């Protein structure tokens, strides 16, 4: 072990849509977690790794806490609860509202049952005046004994270095768990599938996005040049949704593919030939075998 080197695991939790994925991407300096204005964007815990000269933090970006309405929802909430128990630090992300929402109070009640140090990150402070932030700090201080409270803006990168210092301070001494040039333990196929799902979430109508899953069925770099072929299926729950995802004369599917290809090329470092197909798997979010097939396996929690 290197002298005084620190390492450990950090869980980022909070209600859906408070900016957890944005914060993690900012700290890592790469786009790993998908982002969307839609709740429940993150479905799997995504491990990303931040390595500096004196510490290594392994981040677990968990799904937003919510009341589950399907087997998929149960899986997501269970993965959050387990994440809280297996880490060294919990970063609890909230928005700068003085009145604490009921869903946030529910999270605070869960936090009272764990021994892990909890840091409150008040994100989106760029959207309010400073006196409002002070009121938020006061309100949250009264309901839970946080280890530290840090006003933050992931969008404007306000206090990002301060957050790194807080994390470093809270980690125990330990070894490098991962090579220093490694920024995620997710396979490339999984990351490609998540990118495609992100673009679909961004472009599609409200009622469809949570009813879709993406599976990359094949991925192969061509021997004769700088081109990778990526083949993927977008699964939806209803025949009517299939038509919307494809769009008039294939226009919507083409838009999803074009936007996804740009990010996948950046990820893989090569040109990409992306082929997408849309298939119907009725009620897949409540079918155990299909959840397993799409990577939402309880054994992975």
Structure, explained:
The chain has helices at residues 20-28, 71-85, 102-111, 130-141, 160-170, 188-203, 239-246, 251-268, 288-293; strands at residues 6-13, 46-51, 55-61, 89-94, 118-122, 148-151, 213-221, 227-236, 271-280. The strands form two sheets. The chain has a six-stranded mixed beta sheet, sandwiched between helices. A three-stranded mixed beta sheet has the order 7-8-9. The protein has 301 residues and is an alpha/beta fold. It starts with 5 loop residues before the first strand and ends in an 8-residue tail after the last helix.
Write the layout of secondary structure elements.
Blueprint: E1 6-13, H1 20-28, E2 46-51, E3 55-61, H2 71-85, E4 89-94, H3 102-111, E5 118-122, H4 130-141, E6 148-151, H5 160-170, H6 188-203, E7 213-221, E8 227-236, H7 239-246, H8 251-268, E9 271-280, H9 288-293
Parallel strand pairs: 1-3, 1-4, 4-5, 5-6, 8-9
Antiparallel strand pairs: 2-3, 7-8
Essential attributes:
single chain, 301 residues, alpha/beta, 9 helices, 22% strand, globular
SSE class: alpha/beta
| First-to-last CA distance | 29 Å
Largest sheet: 6 strands, mixed
What level of helicity do the residues show?
25-40%
Form type: globular
List SSEs in N-to-C order: EHEEHEHEHEHHEEHHEH
Q: Average pLDDT across residues?
A: 81
Strand order of the largest sheet: 2-3-1-4-5-6
Poorly predicted tracts of residues: 34-44
Instruction: Count helical runs.
Output: 9
Q: What proportion strand?
A: 15-25%
Q: From the alpha-carbon coordinates, what is the Rg to the nearest angstrom?
A: 20 Å
Question: What is the number of strand segments?
Answer: 9
